[in-house]
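User: For my dataset I need records formatted as: sequence, then structure tokens, nothing else. Please produce one.
Assistant:
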Amino acid sequence: MNINYKRVSRYLLIISLFIFLVYFGANVASLSLIGKPVVKKIKLYSQYYNEKIYIKKKSWGITGSGQVIVISKSPDKDFQPDETQEYVFNGLQPFCYKFENDALFIFVRKKTTIPVKMSTKIEIKQIILDNTEMMTLFDDIREGKEKTIHNIDWE
């Protein structure tokens, strides 16, 4: 059997180059070098304390697979999360909230660190739900059974 090594090496080079370009392209997309982040902001106002806090969600990447949600005193849409001054929830995790009686209730799968430099009179409570509880809550919100809890993605 006569093997043409030049031809095989060309094919291997082309395949390697293709794999490199696909890998590099995926990494560029994940670093959000393509496109601008999408930011959503929800203002919550306490009349009793005359104070505002904001829930801000930033999504990036081709499919929006990069995500961070912060609870902040700052209204700025162009933000970098600061765990010392904001509640920061990284990644694609479910996030629902309820604002009632000057208290913010956050329904999440994983608790985040309480920021040491965030000064607010509004009480912020993190309520941890397992996957089944979170899916039931989503269903109740979607079906209109739960009207006081909101999903940040559906507003």
